[in-house]
Structures are given as C-alpha cells and as structure tokens.
Amino acid sequence: MSLPPEKVNELKQVIHAHLNQLDIHGQIKNIVNESMKNTSLDESREDEEKNVLKMLKEQGVVDDILSTLKFQGLKDKQTPSKRVLKDKEGRWIPDEDRRFPIDPGKRYLYFQVTGGRAFLEHLQDPEPYPGRVCSYFTLHVNFMGQRYHSKDIACACEPAFDEAFLLEIKPHSSNDKQPDTRNLLTINDKIHVVIIRTEPSGESHLIGSHYLEWRGIVCNTSSRMQNSVEINGIGAESNVPIGILDIKMNLIPRLNQVTTTDVITTQLNLERTRVAERDRLFLAYSKQWWREYLQIRSTHSNRLVKIFAQDENSIHRFVCSYLRPLRSGRLLDTPRQAARFVSLLGYEKHPVVSGTRTEMWTSMHSFLARGKGDVEDHCVLLCSLLLGFGLDAYVCIGTKAKGISHAWVVTINPDGTVLFWESLTAQRYQHQEINPHDPPLAKQKQPSYQYRTVGCIFNHQAFYANSQPTDGVHVCAFDLSNKSAWKSMSADAIRSVCGSGLSPKPLGAVNLVPTNIDPILKSNDLEMELRSLVFDHRNDLGLTTTWDDDLCYLLSPALAAYEFDYSTGVSVGNDDFQNGIRRNVPDGHTFKGFPIQFIHMNARRAFAACLRSPMCEEIICCRGDQVRLAVRVRIFLYPERACAVWIMFAVKYKSVL
Q1: What is the pTM of this model?
Q2: Quick one: 356 exposed, middle or buried, by C-beta within 10 A (0-12, 13-18, 19+)?
Q3: For the packed helices 24-37 and 45-58, what is the interaxial angle rounded to 10 degrees?
Q4: Domain CEP76 C2: where (predicted)?
Q5: What is each CA distance from 108 to 26, 92, 329, in whole angstroms?
C-alpha cells in the first residue's frame, strides 16, 4: 500500500531531523574521507562502496541509525501458536496446521501414504531432475463418497509418496452420533486406492486398484495403525503385485474403549461368509433363470445376455451392481449436459490378448480417476446419471453394424417414447418400432442409429432379457411389462446382491468432483502455444505470419454456438457470427475457417491433428496477397477434468485471379 505524497515528505523530514541530531552526516563524511585516503587507484567503484559500508558497520553508525528510527504501529511479529483442538471430553485432536476442517463432534480417519516400494517395472527408469519430462504416478482415494488425489509423483522403483487424507467416518444415518467402537465395526465401507500412471504424452493408464480394510485400527489402544499394503495389477495381471505402499492410519479422536483382535476377526469372517452365501444363492438362481430362458427358444443361446461382468480386480460381479443413481449436485444441470460430460471422457478399447479381446468393466471410481474407459464404462456412468435425474434408464447390451458387440443407454418415458443415448457421442435417437406384420407395401422409415440387435437391458433394480422372436432393434418393442417379450429376473433376487441396504456393500459410493482449472487462462495459454506452432510451421515453409486480432475475437461466437448445440441439443444458428465476419472481411477478400474439437489440452497433439486435415492445412499454409491468420481457443470445463476444447483456425486473403 503506497503513502500519499504529503505523508512521504513528512516521513523524510522526520528521518532527516533524527540524522542531524546525532550528527550522522558528519560521521559518514569523516568515514568516507578516511576510506578515500586508504583506497588505491586500482580499486573499482564497487570495491570503494563495499569498503565504505564495511567501515560504517564497524564503527556502529548503521546500528545508531536503526536504533533511532522507530515508527509507531510496528510490532514484533509473534509466531502464531499451533491450534490445538479438544473434543467434548478433553481429548487432543491434531489439527494438522489447519489444513483440515475438523469438527469435534465427528469421527475421522487420518489416512497417510508415506512411501512406495518394489515398483519393479520402473527399476531401470533414470533419476528425475528438474526440467525433465517423465512419467508420473497419481494416487486416488475414495471412501464413503469422499474422493481425493495426490500430487504427481515421478515414476520410480521407490516413488516418493507423501500424502495425507482426512476421511470422515460417516454414521449409518444423519441422526446417529459420533460412531463408537461398536458402530465402527458395522461400517464396512473400504478405502478404494487407485494408482494411475500418466505418460509424458498425456496418456493415462490404470495400473493398480486395491480395496483396503481399515477396521483393524479399532483394536489398537493408541487408535493408530501402520502397515504395508501390496498393490496388485489389473485385469489379467490382477494376481501379480506391482508395488507396495507404506501407510499409516489414525482415528480422530481416539476411542475410549477398544476391542480385541478376535472380535474384529470374527466380524470380518462373518461378513465374508454372508457375502459368499448370497453370491452362491444368486448364482444358483441365475443358472436356473438361464435354463428357463433357453427353453423358450433354442436361438436364445446366441443372444448377448450379459449377467456377470469382470471388474479390474478380476472379480465377477452381477451387472446390476455396477449401477446406482448418481446425483451430480450443481455440477450438471440437465440429462443432455450429463450425456455431453460422459462423451468427453476418453474412449479406449481394452487390449486384445492371444487374439481375444479381454473384457473388463472398471469400477466407477477407477473409470473417473483415469478419465478413460471402454464403452461399457461410459454407459454405466451415463445410465447412473440419468437415473439420478429421475429417468427410467437402462443399459442395453447388443450389437451394431457388422455384428460388433456394443452397449448404449435407453430411456423409456411415461408416454411410451423410447430414446437411445449413445454414450460415446452424446447423440440421442428416437426409436420407431417397425411392425413386422405390416403389409409389404407400407412405407417403413429407416432408423438413423447404428444399433442392430439387443440382447438384454438392465439398471440397478431390474434385469430383462429379450425373448421376442427376433432380437433386431428396429422391430423390438420396449414394453417391459410384456412378459412374453422380455424375461425379467426376480426383484428380490436382484436386491439380495445389489440392494441399497446390503452389508457389506458390493461397490462403494462415488461422487463427481469439480475441475479446478481456470478456463479463461487455460484458453489464452493454449491459444498462444498454437500461435507459436503456426509461426514455426510457416517459417519452415518460408512464409511470413501476420495475425489479425480482430478476426480472432470474431471467431468466439461460433465456438460458443457449437458447444451449446452439443450440450443442449438445440441449434442456435450462426447468423451473428456470419454477419460479423462479413463486416470484417473486405470486398475482394476470401475467408476460410476450420473448427475442430478435442478432449485434451495438449497444444502439440492438437496442432498435429489439425495438420492431418487437408482443409485445416490449407488454412495454416495459406499463400497469397494480404494473408491474415486467426486462431481462437475456447475451453468448456465439466466435472472430473473433462473438457471440450474448441479450436478454430481461420484466414482471410485477397483473391488474385
């Protein structure tokens, strides 16, 4: 904060008066004269200044000046004492330097990852140093819907993990008090730890997933536990360790009463027995249900009826257990926006091993942590979001063109309207059933979607197998109440393995998290990077580059209209954009523009993709008279670091015949 000029002059007068009272000017003058006598001609001006300052300090002149200049309102800074919280019974609660908002009326689990060992895949990796681009690990944690992630740690055989997460242990209901020892034993939610490796190119890989049991801490009198956790790989490598994490856990506040190890062991064994028994009963029921389904028609054995799916830990789960209504709070406002968000998450087919495509349905937390997955992962997330919006949504398993297996989402409205949602593109199609009994001359509308057959549909409460004479989508009737067209599973059987009140729960709750990126700053940075890349590319071709800032700005309405169209399904048109361009482009000049959308913010990858388009390359490498280039970047952010990056390259030049 600057002082007004009159205050500055007043302060100068006060300092000058103090110096005159102590004859500071005279002392400095004498010291300078003495220093000049002892200075040789070879010494530089800088050395002379050092000698003068040294003599001023030795004779105490500097100390006299500092001791006399005392200003009101300045006090010695006191080191703030570390805040210590206590609960109602006076037990100490660590506040961790105010990093975490601790409520003394709640109970927390302070979860620490203090290091990593035996990540042998990175044994030969070179040592990271500042400025070197290398692969890195990111640790993701989910507990009772609370999600956190670590900072990026360079990949190494012994990665330097040093993270702490404060996890609230929520009671079964909002009316329950702070969980005590007995209540903690009944809370069977596990800590889901996921490790993501990101390559220098930006490609991310899910390399480890582990469900950590934490309740062993309740038998420790100090409410602390330290352990080493072995993390296994995923898919075909789920039985192969990839590394070890060193962890510590503290209960906050400490327990008044602890239990014995035998009690915990008995509780865990009881839960395992309960899970094994309900899985055994459901497996027996599903086998009987499948035999009944095959007895309807022998051709049903060729239909894609998916009852179980294998997750990243090679555990076979009932497909309905992957789904649950997911509410996004204020992060997503409409079902269309939810579909747009899901489509912006990366798509990657699971690898082919020995000529066979390995199937893996990743858990929702692992899918969101990586930000990339197969079509089934996208469908499960989209269907969960649509269920959260109150729609009657189901995941469809079937085939598309050329008999390729595929999955999509269907919603059935109360008026009977059937809508198909493509999770990879956010497109919607209205299903128009073709009646095979219509006369041959009746005009039939060709479907606009790519789906060919449907074998089954399901959500978190229901499972239906298609038992109609043909499984073609175009003739399929989605009247689920028609038992002759759809064979359903028992609702009680489904609730027994994936009901809301199960203990233990099949999969933990997951919530979406917002993105903490400034879209304006990121758009500006990306635009500047693209300008630099265009300049270098044209310079290599022997071309000069001139940017038209006015034209760059005029491209913004078009990019906003494109994203609005995708996120709402409503086209607003580009009349304003076109009128602005017409006024900016002079007569006799030609304008060309090329919009393109990405789901990443890597400038080099985006520029390389643009050059592969003949039209965009023609704009970037334009030759002619009075060539003026423009580029505009607009980033639209969604939850989970998902983004729609719209880029438009444009050029205007004078036409020469």
Answers
A1: 0.82
A2: exposed
A3: 130
A4: 102-256
A5: 68, 13, 24
CA-CA-CA-CA dihedral for 446, 448, 451, 456, to nearest 10: -90
| Sign of the CA dihedral running 265, 271, 272, 273 | positive
- For residues 636 and 519, the answer to whether their CB atoms sit within 8 Å is yes
For the CA atoms of 637, 205, 305, 378, the dihedral, rounded to the nearest 10 degrees, stands at 0
CA-wise closest residue to 409 among 401, 398, 337: 398
Over residues 265-311, the pLDDT tens digits come to: 999 999 999 999 999 999 999 999 999 999 999 899 999 999 999 99
Q: Which residue has the tokens 């009671």?
A: 171
Give the helix/strand (H/E) hosting 617.
helix 614-620
Phi, psi of 189 (to 5 degrees): -70, 135
Query: What sign has the CA pseudo-torsion 182, 184, 185, 187?
Result: positive
User: What domains can you pick out in the chain, each with its CATH number?
Assistant: 5-35+48-65 (no CATH), 97-259 (2.60.40.150), 275-498 (3.10.620), 519-654 (3.40.33.10)
Structural contact between residues 611 and 533, judged by C-beta atoms closer than 8 angstroms: no
Could you say which DSSP state residue 573 is in? Answer: -
Residue 459 near residue 441, CB atoms below 8 Å:
no
| Sequence-ordered alpha helix ranges (H) in 243-401 | 261-296, 335-343, 364-370, 375-388
Q: What is the distance between the alpha carbons of residues 26 and 483, in angstroms, rounded to a whole number? A: 109
At residue 276, the 3 state secondary structure works out as helix
Residue 655's pLDDT is 76
